[in-house]
Amino acid sequence: MEETRIILEAQSVIKQYHQYDAVVTAVNRACIKVREGEFVAIIGSSGSGKSTFLHLCAGMDRPNAGTIYIRGNDITAMGADELSRFRGNYMGMIFQNHNLIPQFTALENILIPTTMCNKPDFSYEEHLKRLIATLGLGDRLHHLPSELSGGQQQRVAIARALINMPQVVFADEPTGNLDRANADEVLALLLEIKAQIGQTLVMVTHDMKIAERADRIYRMDNGELEPVMR
Amino acid sequence: MEELWYKLKRNLARSYKSIRFNWRQYASFFAAIFLMQSFFWLILLTQDAQAEQLRRNAEENYDYHVAVGGLNQDQAIQLQNGAFVVFLSDQLYEIAHVEEQPNAYGGKSYTVYCRITAEPLAQKINTFERKYLNPILENADSPALIRVDYSPLLTLGDDIAEQRTPYLVITAIFALVAVLVLMLLYNIRINHFKFLYGIYMSFGADYKKLLYTAAWELITVSLLTLGPALIFAALVRLILCLTLDGVFAISLWTIPIVFVLNLVVIFAAVALPMRVVSMNRPVDLLAAEDNSNLVSSPRRSFRLFGQRFPDRYALCSIWRFRTYYIRLLCSSVIFAAISISVLYVGTMYADDRDADLVPYTIEIANKKQTIAEDFALSVAGIEGVDRVDYTYNLGGLPSREDHLLIPTNRVKLNASRYYVRNEVQGSSSSATVMEGYRATNNAEYTLIDEATIASLEQQAAASGGTITIEGDLRAALTTPGTVVVSDSIYNAQRFTLQPGDKLQLALYQSYTRKIDDNLTREKDVLRQQLRWYNFDYVELTVGAVVHGLPSARNIMLGMSYSDCESILGLTPAITRIDVVTDPTLDGAALANIDTQMDALFAYYDQYVVTTDRVYEEADLERRMGIEPLLTIVAVMVLIFFPLVCFFSQFLFYFKRNKEFSILLAIGGINDEIHRLHRIDGVLVSAVNFVLTLGLSFLFNWLVYSAMNTWLPSFGIVETAVRYQYGISPLMLILCLAVSVACGYLSCEIPYHQFIARQKKLAAQADALDGAH
Fold this sequence. Notes:
Strand content of chain A: 25-35%
Number of helices of chain B: 24
Helix content of chain A: 25-40%
Number of domains of chain B: 4
Number of strands of chain A: 10
Oligomer: heterodimer
Structural class of chain A: alpha/beta
Number of helices of chain A: 7
CATH class of chain A: Alpha Beta
Largest sheet of chain B: 8 strands, mixed
Structural class of chain B: alpha+beta
Radius of gyration of chain B: 35 Å
Largest interface: A-B, 26 and 26 residues
């Protein structure tokens, strides 16, 4: 592989929760390095801490210890506002259960990141058209999420994650709620857009078939992250 | 500028769209902002009306700027001559009219009314004083007898500025309440829509973005309600004007002021909640898609009498959400309590306005002399004068360096600021006598004679039970060494004195060492006096106690004429007369009193009268309709109660629909869901009832104590006025009814909404089945 710069680097990341009197370690000294344009899959059983780790890398949560660098910026040292702005500009997030806002239409949901980052109205028009065409959402844009199928909802969520052209996209089991056919279709679309734009993709999944399509695979087991040799 | 306009339009369009499509979510904000704006309009329109009324009163009732009275003929002519000039452009003032009254020496006393004709008034009145008035005063035998009265026509600008102050204070207080209401509502919204903010933050929204998004939404709401609120407020004001013979006015400044107030309140209300949201981690906000963030402790229950509670699902649900319910109930019930307190303030205001008025205060020109008794009797005899209150030359105990010893068991806990224990006594006499007593110098000598007794009895009779007299007031006249005392300082009872109690009056004799001149606290001064002064002690017997007498910082220590002479070595004489009149007197009766007073002053020619335009002020206040306005405000504040309650409960139950659907799916029936809502409703109503009752009495007591005791004791209010503690039974019943109804209906209505939604879904499913 051509030598490219490291876009995500996590060093000894620890995340613990207090559950009544017990302390649960969800992520235990996890380390990872992801290069620009790479597709990295993180696999593991339910409750192994892979989603928590993804949320930490995406700046959606704060680790108890360790540092996380995105584009060379230590996001664990950022304040809440700075981190929000950084997330909006450089990161995209796809959730397992789509997390679309029920009272917004598909188009409004897609455009949330542009509004939150104060993007001028016409700056993303071309990109939006391309995304809509690629994802096949043209005739569903003015429908509410409740009027869309699971696959369509996930495609809206993908468009929302990509509308700001982020450098890193974090996907938390994006096909977890979909049947095989829909899952394959969504993954194919995601990889097609990734090929077009060249983003880095970090995906959490428990589906080995999907993981095998990644450049590298990591396994999360009891909060410990290990690379999987292929 | 173009970009600013574009951004403004874009933000407004986005917010408008968001509000239009989610209007149910914003309904409570519409109502709250409408009420807030209505109040701002009402208060500012009332202020505009008052300014206009002041202007009209001044222009219609006065044709002069300054009246100079008590002049002899030469002085009157001198002043009139000043008005005549060769060239009109040089004229400073003109004579409006001249009045003359006979005096005791067979001559005449003149009052010259001058109107300043040159501008600017403030500057020219100084020229008038310097060139024409001061020479007369400098050459007069008794300058103090020359009365100079400036008319409201001259002081109009200051009067209008002065009347703005209370409105500013009220506006500021209400702005705070409005911030509180909007903050509460926004917090409820945030609590129920944390997921939405989680998504916003996941995709780049920082605090600034969240703040502006929230503020723009509320600004859009406020722009939509601004006009209707103005129409509502103007209608209320117009009705008040028509019924109370007032005026209606609106200043051009009022519109931008309300708009700016509006913006300030909105930004203040959303700034903190949004700051708190922005500090959250998006992952936590996303997790609160349902009501899980409102659950206090899902696993825990409590044991009582060996039983585990709660044992039923319905009770379990209210226990699970107890923190949510406590917050909701406290935040909504507070408006019922505030509402009752606002009404109480209205009653206090009316009591204050309708209290006896003191339009004249009389003192003698030569401060070394005292007021002659026949003159005092003549004043008291004027037709229309209700009573006269005399101030004697006896003074307070500190002025003579005396103090009073009160039995320890008669001193209440709240009097600690006003007495000294016997911990520092130095002189042997103090040490012996102070055993079992507390020393205070917060007392004032008063002459007890038939006139004072009549005045006290009259006040007690008119007080409606606030002032009571225990014992025989006349015992002070018949038994030497018997006194009449009051027991309140700053309108709060500090001593539990009873007739027959023995007091020790410590009369200063000499000192062994001077006390520190730098001491400012009376208690510290008294401590040193006890240490280094020698006193003679006279035992006094309490003949009567006047409870509830309006009081400033001293209790009354009333003695007979002979006791004043024998104990204090002073011959009582009047130094001041307060002329008290009935507040319902009409203009003709007032004019009659005025004429008789003028004649009396001209005749005696040695007294100085200070006039206070209290009737004009009372009339102005009556026309402004502050009391009915406060009633309207009380009702408006009460409306916030259902607003907060229903808004929160509807959202809360809406998010529980899934839970109810699951219950139905696993075998539950509608009646069970209904019972759950009903049990919630009954419990919430019961807690609401108790909280409303408790908080209403607490708030009223706080307002009563603040106005009656705390504000006067901190010097914020100059004179202590005794208010009656009370709570409007009608308003209390209304508040209780609202609180019970809100409690029950806010749980009952969501059930019917749930059923309606279920039916709609079933109908849709049936329609689909039919189509297939």
